[in-house]
Amino acid sequence: MRLACSPPLVVFFVLGAAAAVAAETPPEKLIGFTPERAAAERRLEQGFDAALDPAELKEWMRRLSARPHHIGSPYGKDNAEFLAGLFRGWGFDTRIEEFRVLFPTPKMRGLEMVAPTVFRAALAEPPLKEDPTSGQTAEQLPVYNAYSIDGDVTGELVYVNYGVPRDYDELDRHGIDVKGKVVLARYGGSWRGIKPKVAAEHGAIGCLIYSDPRDDGFFQGDVYPKGPYRNDTGAQRGSVADMPLYPGDPLTPGVGATPEVAHGVDLSRAKTLTKIPVMPISYGDALPLLNALGGAVAPESWRGALPVTYHLGPGPTRVHLKLAFDWRLVPAYDVIARLAGSERPDEWVIRGNHHDAWVNGAEDPISGLVALLAEAKAVGALHKAGWTPKRTIVYAAWDGEEPGLLGSTEWAEAHDAELRKKAVAYVNSDSNGRGFLQVSGSHTLERFINQVARDVPDPETAVSVAERLRARRLVRGDDDDAREVRKEERKELRERPDLRIGALGSGSDYTPFLQHLGIASLSIGFGGENGNGIYHSIYDSFAHYTRFNDPKFEYGVALARVGGRTVLRLAEADVAPFEFTAFADTLGRYVEEVSRLATDMREKSEEDNRLLRDRTLVLAADPQQTYVPPEARQAVPYVNFAPLQNALERVQQSARAFDRARTAREGRPLSPEAQKALDVILMSAEQALTRPEGLPVRPWFRHQVYAPGFYTGYGVKTLPGVREALEQRDWKRAEEQAVVEARTLEAFAAQIDKATAVIEEG
Amino acid sequence: MRLACSPPLVVFFVLGAAAAVAAETPPEKLIGFTPERAAAERRLEQGFDAALDPAELKEWMRRLSARPHHIGSPYGKDNAEFLAGLFRGWGFDTRIEEFRVLFPTPKMRGLEMVAPTVFRAALAEPPLKEDPTSGQTAEQLPVYNAYSIDGDVTGELVYVNYGVPRDYDELDRHGIDVKGKVVLARYGGSWRGIKPKVAAEHGAIGCLIYSDPRDDGFFQGDVYPKGPYRNDTGAQRGSVADMPLYPGDPLTPGVGATPEVAHGVDLSRAKTLTKIPVMPISYGDALPLLNALGGAVAPESWRGALPVTYHLGPGPTRVHLKLAFDWRLVPAYDVIARLAGSERPDEWVIRGNHHDAWVNGAEDPISGLVALLAEAKAVGALHKAGWTPKRTIVYAAWDGEEPGLLGSTEWAEAHDAELRKKAVAYVNSDSNGRGFLQVSGSHTLERFINQVARDVPDPETAVSVAERLRARRLVRGDDDDAREVRKEERKELRERPDLRIGALGSGSDYTPFLQHLGIASLSIGFGGENGNGIYHSIYDSFAHYTRFNDPKFEYGVALARVGGRTVLRLAEADVAPFEFTAFADTLGRYVEEVSRLATDMREKSEEDNRLLRDRTLVLAADPQQTYVPPEARQAVPYVNFAPLQNALERVQQSARAFDRARTAREGRPLSPEAQKALDVILMSAEQALTRPEGLPVRPWFRHQVYAPGFYTGYGVKTLPGVREALEQRDWKRAEEQAVVEARTLEAFAAQIDKATAVIEEG
Prior knowledge:
Chain A is an alpha/beta fold. The first copy, chain A, is 39% helix and 15% strand. Residues 1-23 of chain A have low confidence and may be disordered.
């Protein structure tokens, strides 16, 4: 780093919005702890930190990523056993739990362009001499999308951009129908499984997904092996199951697929398989297809970085896609390591990261897993030195996350009742990298995780990871057009003591815990400075990671510090460190958002209809291009949000009352019995945000505040019942869901009130 | 056109915001005409329209673009004589006025990459069999930038994006200095002459300008000859003289370079030559240079569409650029055709378009010129049939526009005093194409030109060209982020009877008339639907134009209808059709803009300084990348805009009073003497907006409201004295200029008051 300014201040504990506080400032009070117990906790954390050694993280990564280790692979099993051995060695009560899950692998993959010229797609990533493990071809899974159905289709190609619903609206304006066609979508803009789902809804017969270099390739930076970015042969494997319906084994939704439960493969029961065959390809393979495509020129925002004029088709490019899979049940090996709590053994703090990869997976998932291992080793060492946590700590290394959160989901389903009774929180990590703290999760833990983030120094700057993230948010995306919005954002970033955390959609193993079981969850990691162009490819290797990502494993250690503090504080707190005002504040934003969504949709529908009615749309179009005006929009009625607004008010009042009661109680600790009673209420508060009936259309998803979008996949939809009903223009359902969600929120408020009563009485 | 809707209504006269008015609606009153005279005028225009024949436009284009016809070329002279013959044949008093101007052409052009590999740039556009005139290599000017100095430089390359001042700020953040380097800039983002000017200010020794396919090539659409867009050999010739200082012959600023005035070539007197050698190249020639470039990856918005990772450099790419020119005086032949006015021969309405091209120039400038010819022929026919205009009409075909508005500027300078006395208005066109009306100019003519636009039907839709433009503006750029702004814009578009017209910066022949002489000017044309990738290349040909632009010449005829009505109404009105409330309204926006500019700069400086002071900028940066924080910004003082605001108020009052007086006078026409007196005042009103001293640093530019930006070139700066002082952070000058501009505006208001007095008294 070349800097024309003074050297950085060394600041470890930065409180609130203060930009620089000297190290002698008294440490912040810890939520859930008395001052004395907080001091002990901080001493414990010093011991924890001292046990972290980046060299170990590196060696574990070397070991775990040495060979391909997807679910069902020999090395995957070997890794599970290696991990179990480590946990055992560190003093954990460890077992490997096995499930039997559907995991198809390719028997036949063929893609060729049959017109206007003939081209056979390579569908292969060649070994590179700079990357030793890339040559392990015998053990590598080929490039494919798991849970694509078998198929043999031939059709004209249509380019559909990211392949999300609004892209098909745009195609409609061009008079293009994908019925009977094969669509070519680029990665990005949604979770990949959305693309074939939406394509099939529109009548397509096949789906290709390629990595455009605009989003994932040379446009971003130098390509591998010169730089970290995706080269023209790199392709992204990945699941395309309809996970917004339910994740986990497609054959056993809601049920843990233990060896006893598992039976034959009846694909008709697998509701999450795609409806059409799907195949991922590299941009090298996509180039000839796009180059030959005719029809209208694609809208500007659809164009990628390949050196062609992007056309929409259909044709003259015709492709023949042939896919056949081996539909097998394979064993999933979850490694579960327990350290029983001394005082509250039936309260579990669960910390997980998956261990399976698509190929060697040094970054995904090993970079996160080695931080978890470091945490577990240090916790084990503290235990060996005589300390035992108040609550039980569970470390989990999940198998089969890649195809569909298989290991975590089956485990959560298998232990459903027990987890709902005992789990305090679930803390997830996955890939990790150099840069900025990334944290999302239950807002009942927002204040708690901010305290953690303020106590962990950033390796590169020595301010706390919270302060560095604050700096990033203050500087990021400075855009004149949105100046007023940015002014408000900056004001809040400077004045609000806590940084806001994101809500969880899906994409990693927190989903079954948070959204199926209602266990408060957090997702933690670092990133934003490491170039990444090897996601789900054979080049996600030890060689790549240690050249381009976090070569010194200092962000691995930083993640271990964040994860370790999170687990230790959750395990050690006198009272589980939940808090409700941040949730109530965030909920207020969500209620405001859905109500504004209805208003915006109403105004937009009126405006769109007006532009249609007075022929403005047609007059503004080029008559030499095909332009099909949209259908007139149904008017958006006024939806009754009052139940939601009243429920919000109730939650806000309850949150403030809880806060007041807790503050009033400071210096007068609760009795141990009252603490225990309070814990039980707090632990299950998040469950009050769920309904056994789940969300409309997808009962597996029970959380009423956070869900992955039915048409986004990764992307969260908050207050999903109301929000998705609005988005789908189902006004009746929106109004019904407002009532349903309001009732849920009121039950949640009642739960908070119970906690408040315990404090006041205990 | 495939449309899923009812056939278009036939609407010729559309009044105000009404979307569809039946043809029997009484015609709109015409500004400057009594109702009876307006009816006669409209009958005259019917006769005018009937004389327009698209086949003639096509044949004139074929003739005029048949061979290369740049200034000084044999065919350029031939064209001038041909044009003069046409005008004479149509009954105009026609002469060719000759000037002697500096026009360098290349003797030596060499560009090679000397490291890290060797590559010699082709610097040539090959003939194409699909384009017959592209093979006329003996007469073509090669690819070059006129008024680049001679030079022989070798240096490391730095990529500077568009090469505008803020791009160098960004390079500063990366610690990159262009001193002693050759810069590679892409076309776009400013007028091309700004790029070498700014590069030289920063110490660069040479400048290459290439056409990136993102802005001008395959990213936009299929390339020539398959489609209309620029192919990998196409390059953009063009002037790089410092025209924001003064346009016209570099040797004779302010003086008409008649053969008597012209003497030897003393380049030390040519203040507008570049300081460093400059060369335009194709993207085919740029690709190897960019591909070899190292250093940091360019910011995302800097990256083009070439299939490389865009790096900033400097080096390892080193280039050797060698340029030598033949610095000659050449003759410029302006064709000037007059039809003397019957009642007011000393009031001139001037209509111009240039005739010189860079090569064959079918689009630029012949597509505009053939519309002007059609107008002149039709006017001549009306005259032959017995009609004579009230005022004198002057048609002008300018030479030497391409190198630097040479013909128009020298003519305007040579006839300075006469023009300031006699000119009513100047109406310019240049390239023309299929699509939407494009009109900019003096806001004293905004209402007038809107009336014209409402009376001309759009060829493709049969609503008026005004209504079609309104539709375009209503639909264009619908962006959620700016929704509130768009709401206001749409409201205005629907409710304000007149469409706003843009202000004129520079880029065509109106500049000497408007900005040097203070003659109210308009620029008219059509475009927006034709793909254009042949600008200033050998492929700007009859073959290209008639395939991709306006094959039926229906927009050529539409331009003739607009231009013809504009000229005829200006020539025939009882009183020159100026109006001041639209100007006052627009001026209010400009005053508001400059005052908000100061506020925004103040807030941004404070915010930037805060982010610097509290180390946020450094904390948000990646320590593994070079990041040099900016210098602290000088605080922005409060600038006294009160003089401007008071002057604005005065102009607004005067404008309203003029309007009231005129309305009160309806039905009681002024005496012929009063009309004449009023005309003289109105004609010179725009001159009241000029100062003989001109703008700071550039006295040639006398207009105090409209000027091309000193650092934009084409782009207008309104209230340039104040605005550019603010932009250059010269607070003292900003305050002085506010007083200067206020005084000018008050003189303008006084001029309006004089006109009002004539109406009230006459």
